[in-house]
């Protein structure tokens, strides 16, 4: 990793490269996804199975799209007890956290004769998309929990999981156990953009949902972007990113490991260290190179660090915090002696990890907060996946006659200014003014 002194022209140029990252796609990708969505919307199961056969499971038939209850039940015997214990702990802790988010309906009587309020209701059905990853070799069980648990707490009655099958048509048993543990009974062997299309539009086998959440590759992301408005989505997420602020007390090996934990995701991922100690900068750079050499996904991580990695040496930690707020990272780690003293100054971050024993993977799996987070600077205005993503809010209004007459003239005047005569007339007829 290259080291830059901040502020400087060279550092600003590098920051521009990093913060200028966005959802990277070519027009041919967008056109391909549009075609896939149209095919599934028009052709239903027939189009869906063609894509599944072509890209995932060559011999899967339409009646095998839905995972049967026996397969879900039998999966429990194919996973080890240590996994089940870890899964149950993660699910319980994610539940505890997300219960705090549950919104409530409310009614108020702010003026005599009036009643206003808000009804909070869950969507009827939510689709949880779970990537296959390396032909099913990397089952993202955490994505199952992070999508399904807040949906269930919101009160969603129908939870649907879509995930690409392996070449033999099977689904990794760890995913099936996680789905059952999270309350999902409806699981389909469909992935990529055609899986998103099936959830958004529905087919003969897969009834449509109202909201789709979950991570995925560029085709999944573009498909979610295109169906947004037809259904609700969580967010348009870009590649993963981490910003680590470290002072002289930080363990260089821990800081390096944390940077690599995100760099290994994707060549487009970003990993940045900001420190006020040159000695820390040097030690972390050395440790990154050493750990990179032994990393199974080292080639991916190396590409990430080459294009979107940096070590920035700043004058002081206040400058580091200002820089973090400017970048608005998905993951922000404070590997400093007194992390809580800086928490109040953080304005823009998807999630903040405080102290030496809170590395980012704690949040990925088990701490409780959701790991579906805003990326590419969107933490300036958006938030993590939450119970709110699975609810809708309906306004409630009631006036009695006295309250109506008290405010009617003002309503008429506002309508007249806007040039909406029928609006004004709807008030006047109730005033007895024809």
Structure description:
- By secondary structure, the protein is of the alpha/beta class.
- The chain folds into three domains: 3-19 and 238-368, 3-Layer(aba) Sandwich (Rossmann fold); 27-103 and 127-233, 3-Layer(aba) Sandwich (Rossmann fold); 400-431, no CATH class.
- The chain has 17 helices and 14 strands.
- It has helices at 9-19, 27-43, 45-55, 69-74, 81-99, 141-154, 173-181, 192-201, 218-227, 252-263, 278-293, 298-308, 317-327, 340-343, 360-365, 401-417, 421-431; strands at 3-5, 106-108, 114-122, 125-129, 158-162, 186-188, 211-213, 232-233, 241-246, 270-275, 309-313, 331-335, 351-354, 391-399.
- The strands form three sheets. The chain has a six-stranded parallel sheet, sandwiched between helices. A five-stranded parallel sheet has the order 6-5-4-7-8, sandwiched between helices.
- Helix 5 (81-99) runs parallel beside helix 7 (173-181).
- The longest helix has 19 residues, at 81-99.
- The N and C termini lie far apart (77 Å).
Write the layout of secondary structure elements.
Elements: E1 3-5, H1 9-19, H2 27-43, H3 45-55, H4 69-74, H5 81-99, E2 106-108, E3 114-122, E4 125-129, H6 141-154, E5 158-162, H7 173-181, E6 186-188, H8 192-201, E7 211-213, H9 218-227, E8 232-233, E9 241-246, H10 252-263, E10 270-275, H11 278-293, H12 298-308, E11 309-313, H13 317-327, E12 331-335, H14 340-343, E13 351-354, H15 360-365, E14 391-399, H16 401-417, H17 421-431
Parallel strand pairs: 1-11, 4-5, 4-7, 5-6, 7-8, 9-10, 9-12, 10-11, 12-13
Antiparallel strand pairs: 2-3, 3-14
Helix pairs in contact: 2-3, 2-8, 2-9, 5-6, 5-7, 6-7, 8-9, 10-11, 16-17
């Amino acid at each position: 990793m290259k080291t830059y002194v901040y502020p400087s022209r060279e550092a600003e140029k590098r920051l521009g490269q990093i913060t200028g990252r966005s959802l990277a796609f070519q027009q041919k990708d967008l056109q391909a996804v549009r075609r896939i969505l149209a095919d599934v919307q028009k052709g239903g199961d027939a189009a869906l199975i063609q894509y599944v056969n072509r890209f995932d499971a060559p011999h899967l038939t339409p009646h095998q799209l839905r995972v049967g209850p026996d397969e879900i039940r039998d999966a429990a015997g194919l996973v080890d007890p240590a996994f089940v214990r870890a899964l149950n702990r993660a699910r319980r802790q994610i539940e505890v956290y997300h219960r705090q988010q549950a919104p409530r309906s409310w009614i108020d009587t702010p003026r005599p004769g009036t009643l206003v309020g808000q009804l909070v209701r869950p969507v009827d059905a939510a689709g949880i998309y779970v990537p296959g990853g390396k032909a099913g070799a990397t089952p993202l069980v955490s994505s199952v929990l992070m999508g399904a648990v807040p949906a269930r707490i919101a009160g969603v009655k129908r939870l649907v999981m879509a995930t690409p099958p392996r070449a033999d048509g099977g689904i990794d048993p760890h995913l099936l156990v996680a789905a059952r543990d999270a309350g999902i009974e409806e699981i389909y062997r469909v992935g990529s953009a055609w899986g998103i299309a099936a959830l958004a539009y529905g087919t003969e086998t897969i009834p449509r949902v109202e909201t789709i959440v979950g991570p995925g590759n560029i085709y999944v992301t573009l498909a979610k972007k295109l169906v947004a408005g037809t259904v609700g989505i969580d967010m348009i997420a870009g590649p993963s990113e981490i910003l680590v602020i470290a002072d002289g007390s930080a363990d260089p090996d821990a800081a390096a490991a944390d940077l690599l934990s995100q760099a290994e995701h994707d060549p487009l991922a970003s990993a940045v260290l900001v420190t006020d100690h040159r000695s820390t900068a040097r030690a972390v750079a050395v440790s990154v190179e050493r750990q990179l050499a032994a990393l199974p996904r080292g080639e991916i991580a190396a590409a990430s660090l080459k294009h979107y990695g940096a070590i920035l040496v700043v004058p002081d930690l206040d400058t580091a915090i200002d820089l973090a707020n400017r970048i608005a990272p998905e993951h922000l780690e404070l590997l400093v002696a007194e992390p809580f003293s800086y928490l109040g100054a953080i304005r823009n971050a998807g999630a903040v990890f405080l102290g030496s024993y809170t590395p980012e993977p704690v949040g990925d799996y088990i701490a409780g907060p959701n790991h579906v987070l805003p990326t590419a600077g969107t933490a300036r205005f958006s938030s993590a996946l939450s119970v709110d993503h699975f609810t809708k809010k309906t306004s409630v209004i009631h006036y009695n006659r006295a309250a109506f007459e008290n405010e009617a003239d003002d309503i008429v005047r506002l309508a007249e200014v806007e040039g909406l005569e029928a609006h004004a007339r709807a008030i006047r007829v109730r005033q007895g003014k024809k």
